Amino acid sequence: MKFLSNLISWIFLPLFMPVYALLLTMYIPSLEEGSFQNRTIYLLDPRLKLALLGIFFLFSFLAPAISLVILKRNNKISNLEIDNRSERFIPILITAIYSAVLAWFLMVKTPAGILPPAIFLLPAGGTIAILFVLLITRFDKISLHALGVGMLMGFLIAYFQTQAQFQLGILCLATIVSGVVMSARLYLGKHNLRQCLMGYFLGMLVIYLTIKFLGY
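Above: the chain sequence. Below: its structure as C-alpha coordinates.
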Protein backbone atom coordinates (compact mmCIF):
# COMPACT_ATOMS: atom_id res chain seq x y z
CA MET A 1 0.00 0.00 0.00
CA LYS A 2 2.87 2.36 0.76
CA PHE A 3 4.41 1.64 -2.66
CA LEU A 4 1.08 2.36 -4.37
CA SER A 5 0.60 5.60 -2.44
CA ASN A 6 4.10 6.75 -3.41
CA LEU A 7 3.46 5.82 -7.04
CA ILE A 8 0.22 7.81 -7.05
CA SER A 9 2.04 10.77 -5.52
CA TRP A 10 4.65 10.74 -8.28
CA ILE A 11 2.19 10.21 -11.13
CA PHE A 12 0.06 13.08 -9.91
CA LEU A 13 2.79 15.51 -8.98
CA PRO A 14 1.41 19.07 -8.80
CA LEU A 15 3.82 20.09 -11.55
CA PHE A 16 2.07 17.70 -13.96
CA MET A 17 -1.45 19.04 -13.40
CA PRO A 18 -1.47 21.82 -16.05
CA VAL A 19 -0.27 19.33 -18.69
CA TYR A 20 -2.93 16.81 -17.65
CA ALA A 21 -5.58 19.54 -17.84
CA LEU A 22 -4.58 20.36 -21.41
CA LEU A 23 -4.43 16.72 -22.46
CA LEU A 24 -7.98 16.11 -21.23
CA THR A 25 -9.41 19.15 -23.02
CA MET A 26 -7.31 18.90 -26.17
CA TYR A 27 -7.99 15.28 -27.07
CA ILE A 28 -11.43 14.48 -25.63
CA PRO A 29 -14.21 16.00 -27.78
CA SER A 30 -16.19 19.03 -26.64
CA LEU A 31 -18.11 21.73 -28.50
CA GLU A 32 -19.48 25.11 -27.47
CA GLU A 33 -22.78 26.49 -28.64
CA GLY A 34 -22.71 28.42 -31.91
CA SER A 35 -20.53 28.22 -34.99
CA PHE A 36 -17.42 30.18 -33.97
CA GLN A 37 -15.99 27.66 -31.48
CA ASN A 38 -13.31 30.14 -30.43
CA ARG A 39 -13.36 28.88 -26.84
CA THR A 40 -13.04 25.18 -27.67
CA ILE A 41 -9.61 23.75 -26.96
CA TYR A 42 -10.44 20.45 -28.68
CA LEU A 43 -10.65 22.12 -32.10
CA LEU A 44 -7.18 23.71 -32.02
CA ASP A 45 -4.80 22.82 -34.83
CA PRO A 46 -2.91 19.60 -33.95
CA ARG A 47 0.46 21.32 -34.41
CA LEU A 48 -0.58 24.12 -32.07
CA LYS A 49 -1.69 21.53 -29.51
CA LEU A 50 1.74 19.89 -29.54
CA ALA A 51 3.48 23.26 -29.29
CA LEU A 52 1.34 24.26 -26.31
CA LEU A 53 1.93 20.95 -24.56
CA GLY A 54 5.67 21.41 -25.05
CA ILE A 55 5.58 24.95 -23.66
CA PHE A 56 3.48 23.90 -20.66
CA PHE A 57 5.73 20.91 -20.02
CA LEU A 58 8.78 23.19 -20.06
CA PHE A 59 7.45 25.90 -17.74
CA SER A 60 5.11 23.84 -15.53
CA PHE A 61 7.26 20.75 -15.00
CA LEU A 62 10.76 20.67 -16.46
CA ALA A 63 12.06 24.07 -15.36
CA PRO A 64 10.66 23.82 -11.80
CA ALA A 65 11.88 20.21 -11.52
CA ILE A 66 15.41 21.18 -12.56
CA SER A 67 15.30 24.04 -10.07
CA LEU A 68 14.30 21.60 -7.32
CA VAL A 69 17.20 19.31 -8.19
CA ILE A 70 19.61 22.26 -8.05
CA LEU A 71 18.22 23.32 -4.67
CA LYS A 72 18.59 19.75 -3.41
CA ARG A 73 22.21 19.49 -4.58
CA ASN A 74 22.97 22.78 -2.84
CA ASN A 75 21.32 21.50 0.37
CA LYS A 76 18.63 24.19 0.29
CA ILE A 77 15.93 21.53 0.59
CA SER A 78 16.03 18.12 2.29
CA ASN A 79 14.16 16.22 -0.42
CA LEU A 80 12.44 16.82 -3.75
CA GLU A 81 8.99 16.63 -2.15
CA ILE A 82 9.94 19.59 0.09
CA ASP A 83 8.33 17.95 3.12
CA ASN A 84 9.90 20.48 5.48
CA ARG A 85 7.59 23.51 5.69
CA SER A 86 10.47 25.86 6.51
CA GLU A 87 12.17 24.92 3.21
CA ARG A 88 9.16 25.54 0.98
CA PHE A 89 9.32 29.28 0.41
CA ILE A 90 12.04 29.40 -2.27
CA PRO A 91 10.83 26.38 -4.31
CA ILE A 92 7.23 27.64 -4.27
CA LEU A 93 8.33 31.16 -5.22
CA ILE A 94 10.37 29.79 -8.13
CA THR A 95 7.34 27.79 -9.32
CA ALA A 96 5.19 30.93 -9.12
CA ILE A 97 7.70 32.83 -11.25
CA TYR A 98 7.74 30.13 -13.94
CA SER A 99 3.93 30.06 -13.93
CA ALA A 100 3.74 33.86 -14.24
CA VAL A 101 6.24 33.86 -17.12
CA LEU A 102 4.18 31.17 -18.90
CA ALA A 103 0.96 33.19 -18.47
CA TRP A 104 2.69 36.36 -19.71
CA PHE A 105 4.16 34.57 -22.72
CA LEU A 106 0.81 33.10 -23.77
CA MET A 107 -1.08 36.37 -23.29
CA VAL A 108 1.45 38.75 -24.82
CA LYS A 109 3.44 36.74 -27.35
CA THR A 110 0.63 34.88 -29.12
CA PRO A 111 -1.62 36.56 -31.72
CA ALA A 112 -4.89 37.90 -30.32
CA GLY A 113 -7.76 35.45 -30.56
CA ILE A 114 -5.66 32.42 -31.49
CA LEU A 115 -5.97 30.76 -28.08
CA PRO A 116 -9.10 30.05 -26.02
CA PRO A 117 -8.82 32.21 -22.86
CA ALA A 118 -8.82 29.15 -20.60
CA ILE A 119 -5.35 28.20 -21.84
CA PHE A 120 -3.53 31.32 -20.66
CA LEU A 121 -5.76 31.77 -17.63
CA LEU A 122 -4.70 28.33 -16.37
CA PRO A 123 -1.13 29.45 -15.54
CA ALA A 124 -2.41 32.90 -14.51
CA GLY A 125 -4.74 31.31 -11.98
CA GLY A 126 -1.97 28.92 -11.01
CA THR A 127 0.28 31.87 -10.18
CA ILE A 128 -2.39 33.39 -7.95
CA ALA A 129 -2.98 30.07 -6.18
CA ILE A 130 0.74 29.55 -5.60
CA LEU A 131 1.09 33.05 -4.15
CA PHE A 132 -1.71 32.22 -1.70
CA VAL A 133 0.23 29.09 -0.78
CA LEU A 134 3.29 31.23 -0.06
CA LEU A 135 1.29 33.19 2.49
CA ILE A 136 -0.31 30.11 4.06
CA THR A 137 3.05 28.31 4.27
CA ARG A 138 4.20 30.86 6.84
CA PHE A 139 1.62 29.39 9.23
CA ASP A 140 0.73 25.90 8.02
CA LYS A 141 1.87 23.11 5.70
CA ILE A 142 -0.71 23.04 2.92
CA SER A 143 -0.89 19.98 0.64
CA LEU A 144 0.57 20.83 -2.75
CA HIS A 145 -0.72 17.58 -4.23
CA ALA A 146 -4.25 18.48 -3.13
CA LEU A 147 -3.73 21.97 -4.52
CA GLY A 148 -2.76 20.44 -7.87
CA VAL A 149 -5.79 18.17 -8.22
CA GLY A 150 -8.00 21.00 -6.97
CA MET A 151 -6.66 23.24 -9.73
CA LEU A 152 -7.35 20.50 -12.26
CA MET A 153 -10.93 20.16 -11.03
CA GLY A 154 -11.52 23.91 -10.98
CA PHE A 155 -10.15 24.25 -14.51
CA LEU A 156 -12.36 21.48 -15.88
CA ILE A 157 -15.52 22.80 -14.22
CA ALA A 158 -14.95 26.38 -15.41
CA TYR A 159 -13.98 25.32 -18.93
CA PHE A 160 -16.83 22.86 -19.44
CA GLN A 161 -19.33 25.52 -18.40
CA THR A 162 -18.44 27.19 -21.71
CA GLN A 163 -19.07 23.99 -23.68
CA ALA A 164 -22.52 22.83 -24.74
CA GLN A 165 -21.24 19.30 -25.37
CA PHE A 166 -18.57 17.57 -23.32
CA GLN A 167 -17.80 14.24 -21.69
CA LEU A 168 -19.23 14.27 -18.17
CA GLY A 169 -17.04 11.27 -17.43
CA ILE A 170 -14.00 13.56 -17.33
CA LEU A 171 -15.36 15.37 -14.28
CA CYS A 172 -16.18 12.03 -12.66
CA LEU A 173 -12.64 10.84 -13.35
CA ALA A 174 -11.15 14.04 -11.94
CA THR A 175 -13.24 13.64 -8.79
CA ILE A 176 -12.03 10.07 -8.30
CA VAL A 177 -8.41 11.08 -8.93
CA SER A 178 -8.76 13.89 -6.40
CA GLY A 179 -9.94 11.46 -3.74
CA VAL A 180 -7.24 8.92 -4.57
CA VAL A 181 -4.44 11.49 -4.46
CA MET A 182 -5.54 13.00 -1.15
CA SER A 183 -6.01 9.52 0.33
CA ALA A 184 -2.45 8.63 -0.72
CA ARG A 185 -1.07 11.73 0.96
CA LEU A 186 -3.02 10.98 4.13
CA TYR A 187 -1.88 7.35 4.14
CA LEU A 188 1.77 8.37 3.79
CA GLY A 189 1.36 10.74 6.72
CA LYS A 190 2.48 13.74 4.65
CA HIS A 191 -0.57 15.82 5.61
CA ASN A 192 -3.67 15.76 7.75
CA LEU A 193 -7.21 16.05 6.39
CA ARG A 194 -7.43 19.80 7.02
CA GLN A 195 -4.26 20.48 5.05
CA CYS A 196 -5.50 18.38 2.14
CA LEU A 197 -8.94 19.99 2.04
CA MET A 198 -7.42 23.45 2.37
CA GLY A 199 -5.13 22.82 -0.59
CA TYR A 200 -7.88 21.23 -2.67
CA PHE A 201 -10.48 23.95 -2.27
CA LEU A 202 -7.92 26.74 -2.60
CA GLY A 203 -6.71 25.35 -5.94
CA MET A 204 -10.21 24.67 -7.23
CA LEU A 205 -11.71 28.02 -6.26
CA VAL A 206 -8.82 30.17 -7.47
CA ILE A 207 -8.65 28.53 -10.90
CA TYR A 208 -12.42 28.42 -11.28
CA LEU A 209 -12.89 32.08 -10.37
CA THR A 210 -9.95 33.18 -12.53
CA ILE A 211 -11.33 31.51 -15.65
CA LYS A 212 -14.97 32.29 -14.88
CA PHE A 213 -14.57 36.00 -14.28
CA LEU A 214 -11.49 36.97 -16.29
CA GLY A 215 -12.00 34.85 -19.39
CA TYR A 216 -15.69 34.54 -19.97
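Helices lie at 2-11, 17-27, 46-73, 89-108, 117-137, 144-160, 168-187, 193-214.
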